Amino acid sequence: MWYINRHMRLHTGEKPFICPHPGCDYRSYRKYHLTRHELNIHSNLRPHQCDDCDYASKTRSALRQHVATQHSSEQNMITARQKRRESLMEKQFKAKADQITQLTQELEHMKTMI
Prior knowledge:
- 65% of the residues lie in helices and 7% in strands.
- The chain is built from four helices and four strands, in the order H-E-E-H-E-E-H-H.
- The strands form two sheets. A two-stranded antiparallel sheet has the order 1-2. A two-stranded antiparallel ribbon has the order 3-4.
- The radius of gyration is 24 Å and the shape is flat.
């Protein structure tokens, strides 16, 4: 039933979610919209990092636009994909290595108890 109440706010104009930042008059009918507003407008976080340069953006769409205008060649797109894949593989490898290290330490500890 909550979704009907949320949908009805569209028709009634009710916007119960108010931006807490002084001087900002933004209001929203959905909490998610307020959260997105706070991150995009009032935050300095730029979590979306370009794989090919130092550019970082607040939104994924801004990063996509940057890549399309600044790094539009096919070779750059392939390089970016390779970097992401290599980074993921490195993380997975490190996680496995950490598991092996932990198991080895536990085994050595168990040997001392025998």
